[in-house]
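=== Structure Prediction Worksheet ===
Name of assembly: unnamed complex
Input type: mixed (protein and possibly other molecules)
Chain count: two
Listed entries:
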Amino acid sequence: MTEHVAHETLQLLADGELTGESAQSVRHHLRECASCSAVLGAMVKFDRFARSMPVPVVRREFTQDLLTRLGIPPRTPLLFRLIEHAASGIAVLLVVMMGAAVWALIALAGGDHAVNQEFPGQGVVNAAGKWLERGYGEFGDWLSRIVPNVFGGQAAKIAVMLLLVIPLVALVDWLVGRNGTAGEL
Amino acid sequence: MIADHTIIARILAGDTHRFSVLVERYKDRAFALACRLVGNREEAEEVLQDAFVKAFRSLADFRGGSRFGTWFYRIVYNACMTRVSRRHDSVPSLDDPAMVGGECAVASNDPDALERLAEDEQHEILDAEMQKLPEKFRTVLALFYVQGQRYEEISLILNLPMSTVKTHLFRARALLRNRVLDRYNDETRAA
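=== Predicted Assembly ===
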């Protein structure tokens, strides 16, 4: 190839869009032609410069605004979602804890012996505890050892019961929520 | 990274939250394209919202014959064109001889001229001159430079023959290059 290469062809080569024999032929010419090499160099430089242009970025709230417009509920981080799903279970836990705290205060006000007295609903807790001990076996025993021995030794069983209840409520909540959004599309 | 078609299958199966993954994946590049085509951030964002809404509602029609990006950028492009045509802008025609004539010569007489400009100044001039180009030129340049699309993808997005894409890209770049260098020369003469 003795004539100069068409600029359009050089541009194709610079863009990697020229292949095979055509590309080989142009490359061979470039080795001998300073003029075409300079043109190609200018093209490559300009492209590199144009590609380095700062790219505008959409504002951060864009995705959330869009999802709201589409009626898709916001997607919260995993931890928050777990807490959200477990909200009912946590509410039950809080009520029980408040009840326990009130009972403990009454017990403390009545002297040490009061701790070992029967408390309201102890029969239910005992029955649940026995069921859990059967179900959990060694895990229940281990928990009984590490949880302070209050409420007549039933605290560990209450804790196990709550550990069961919270994920169960979370699972039901998640299933209901999932079915609720399935029909949106 | 989860593949686009897997995410789309999950969205169609009811896990609509997954659409946010696609939005996060494509919003910035699509926004850059929209900015180039409509010329300002506010309108570009509105157009992009409309494009995503349309994509979400038409997701079941996406057959997977092409990449999701190609399909989506086409929606963005069409939304931008609708917006621009509503303005009744009188952009110079691509067939205008002034646009495709002498100005399209490759500016190779001073290849290092750009390097003598400060980087910010270079970008400012390039941005301004790119904005003045006819819409068809701006579109191919945005897809090529900002999106990093290859000729074939550009051809699919714009629904143009490959030969037309090649010609548009060549002319657009030559025109832009010359205008940027002319502007540089004007400014250095004035200084």
